[in-house]
Specification:
- By secondary structure, the protein is of the alpha/beta class.
- It has a single domain, classed as Aldolase class I (TIM Barrel).
- Helices cover 46% and strands 14% of the residues.
- It has 12 helices and 8 strands.
- Strands 1-2-3-4-5-6-7-8 form an 8-stranded parallel barrel, surrounded by 6 helices.
- Helix 2 links the parallel strand 2 and strand 3.
- Helix 2 runs parallel beside helix 3, helix 9 runs antiparallel to helix 10 and helix 11 packs across helix 12.
- The radius of gyration is 18 Å and the shape is globular.
- The relative contact order is 0.14.
- The model has no long low-confidence stretch (mean pLDDT 97).
């Protein structure tokens, strides 16, 4: 039995003044490259993409492909509120050598199914040479891809999969029932890694695994072995790591500091962890580094 794929959602390094730190990002990419995970998801929510300029995204795409592509799959997120910007970012990623991209639904303004159909149809038409993953994150964008619409999008040329965040596995199972067998489904719910097979989900896109890959590698091994003892131990480790780090970008940066990776701070409005939270981060890094 093959195990689930772990696709690492990679943070972006920033200096204390908020400026982009390419050297810090290079250090993050090199750390992720040694994780043993199957892939990397760059310039997504964990990478603070809404706060980056087009040119900064280009710098990071180049770095990611240089440092990560020799070791794992690299999915470059090229999403933006407008199709105009998405097409620029799509060309930018392809020119840099990307082979896989993800595109979040447009956000801020509400979008009907018809608008989303047109949007992703245009993305597909422009995606020669690229595999496209639809990125669904209703709680951040306000827009959702219904099961019926996903069935349509999954049959567009170049659209090969979807990354779905903060939706129950039942929703991914509903997608699985209407998309082709070859269509890839990934959840953003790190803690569900041991429970994906029944929903027809191929893996997780995990921000926690960017700093603590070890529990996730244990989880993959446990699924492959089907050992009850390994499954229980792996779930406990994943629960601890996810419970402490979660989707908290500031806690991820605190963990990187403890690991000796100069990831800096955050550009977006993220509250820094207090002393109690930092103690938890220190302990979980000690346990699973």
């Amino acid at each position: 039995m093959s195990g689930p794929s772990v696709i690492t959602a990679v943070p972006t390094a920033f200096r204390a003044d908020g400026g982009l730190d390419p050297e810090g990002s290079r250090a993050i990419f090199d750390y992720v490259a040694r994780s043993g995970n199957e892939g990397a998801f760059v310039l997504g929510t964990t990478g603070e993409f809404p706060a980056l300029t087009v040119s900064e995204r280009g710098v990071l795409v180049d770095l990611a492909l240089q440092r990560l592509a020799p070791h794992m799959r690299v999915i470059v997120h090229v999403g933006a509120p407008s199709l105009f910007e998405v097409l620029q970012l799509l060309d930018q990623a392809r020119d840099a050598g990307a082979r896989e991209v993800a595109v979040i639904t447009p956000y801020f303004l509400p979008a009907t199914d018809g608008a989303l159909r047109d949007f992703f149809g245009a993305v597909s038409a422009a995606a020669d040479g690229l595999d496209v993953h639809v990125y669904v994150y209703r709680k951040r964008t306000g827009n959702f891809v219904s099961t019926e619409l996903m069935a349509e999008l999954s049959r567009l040329p170049h659209v090969v999969g979807a990354k779905v965040s903060e939706e129950p596995l039942e929703q991914l199972a509903a997608y699985r029932a209407v998309v082709p067998d070859s269509f890839l489904l990934y959840t953003g719910a790190d803690g569900e890694i041991l429970h994906l097979a029944d929903a027809g989900v191929q893996g997780v896109v995990s921000g926690v695994s960017s700093v603590l890959p070890r529990p996730f590698r244990q989880a993959v091994d446990a699924v492959v072995s089907a050992s009850p003892d390994k499954l229980v131990a792996a779930q406990s480790a994943v629960d601890e790591a996810v419970g402490v780090i979660g989707g908290d970008l500031a806690r991820m940066k605190a963990a990187y500091a403890l690991l000796g990776v100069p990831a800096g701070g955050n550009r977006m409005a993220v509250e820094k962890p207090d002393a109690a939270a930092l103690a938890q981060v220190e302990q979980v890094v000690k346990d699973y580094r």
